[in-house]
Amino acid sequence: MAEIRSYMKEKAKREQNRISYKDKIFHHKLKNVYRVLLILAAVLAMIGIVIIQYNRHVYTGYDVVSSTPLDLTSGTTDVRLQNCVLTYSKDGAHCTTPKGVVNWNQTYQIQDIKLDINKDAVAIASYNGREIYVQNTEKQLGTITTNMPIRDIAVSGAGDVTAVLSDTDVTWINTYDATGKMRFTGQVHMQETGYPVDVCLSPNGILLAVSYVYLDAGTMKSNVVFYNLGPVGENMGDMIVSAYSYSDMLIPEIHFVNDDTAFAIGDSRLTVFKGGQTPVDGAGHIFDKEIQAVFYGDKCVGLIFGSDDAEHTYKLEIYNTDGKRITNYYFDLDYTDIFFEEKDFVIYNENECMIVTYGGAEKYKGSFSKAAELLLPANGTYRYTMVTASSIDTIQLK
């Protein structure tokens, strides 16, 4: 009997030791988990601090990272062509990379230039002329010759070109590929459709938008008509897939920001059309003030109004592709250009520049050391390509 009691006591002792050992292992693992969680929390806190400091950081100047000599000819104009610089005049045009390499050079004699840019493609023609020169950032794509005088042009990102041509009794709207092959032709009668005041092609060249103006019983009205130049449009009469009419409103500008979103701009109206095959009239806004200027990004449109705040000169309202206003910003800088980046927008003239987040925080406000003919984004955060009369500079904010 004593042996049994001794055995049971020994067994209970062994069991207690086993439980105590398990507790030690459990607590040891728990401590390790706590350590990992504490380290993780510290790392996340540091990342959060860095992000907050980065978002709050205000740049006060810039460094010139690289500079390429440039000799601008008097009478030329510089515009952005994707990540390159398009320089044009009445005598010709050429495309230059930020490193100063001229990718192509096109000569011509044009008195009244008609020019349109879509992504990295550009079309250049003469009002009343009969030739259209088509290029992208890398090369010349072709020359289109028309048999009637040119009134207006539009280019797609692929190099297709729509030309508004004047005939004796009708206006023709023809679309060609970059080599001059006809893709679409249509007649416009003033009494029926109206007169085309603006034309625009989607980047992929599938959709053509035309804004017409006409008089109805002495009242000016506008029609916005969408043509589908692809298989969907081939099954429709005259390739028209949708059309919208607006009373007492001139819509002088329509623009595709991507393949399925177009903005139509009136004197005091913004309309968003959505749809990659059959655009529909989506969100719209009617303003009580006249729109003074319009600037486009890949995902938004910026409208400039006179300020309703006595302390400022201008008001910028930015709308996304759903027609939602994402910000408004008051400023006084006499701008020559505005462009939009992922997190910021840039307002500048030849002497000064402002960079502002969509939340309204000023990241930079300062002067250029040399007069800027053109400013465009470069590879890298807060890095830009600046074209001056004597150089192409890559600058980095600091």
Question: What would the keywords be for this entry?
Answer:
32 strands, 50% strand, 398 residues
Could you please describe the fold and organization of this structure?
The chain is mainly beta and 398 residues long. 15% of the residues lie in helices and 50% in strands. It is built from two helices and 32 strands. It has helices at residues 2-56, 231-234; strands spanning 62-69, 77-81, 84-88, 92-96, 102-107, 113-118, 121-126, 131-136, 140-145, 150-155, 161-166, 171-176, 182-188, 195-201, 207-216, 219-228, 240-247, 253-258, 261-265, 269-274, 280-286, 293-296, 300-306, 314-320, 325-331, 337-340, 344-348, 352-357, 362-367, 374-377, 383-387, 391-397. The strands form eight sheets. A four-stranded antiparallel sheet has the order 1-32-31-30, with no helix packed on it.
Outline of this structure?
With 398 residues, the chain is mainly beta. It has helices at 2-56, 231-234, and strands at residues 62-69, 77-81, 84-88, 92-96, 102-107, 113-118, 121-126, 131-136, 140-145, 150-155, 161-166, 171-176, 182-188, 195-201, 207-216, 219-228, 240-247, 253-258, 261-265, 269-274, 280-286, 293-296, 300-306, 314-320, 325-331, 337-340, 344-348, 352-357, 362-367, 374-377, 383-387, 391-397.
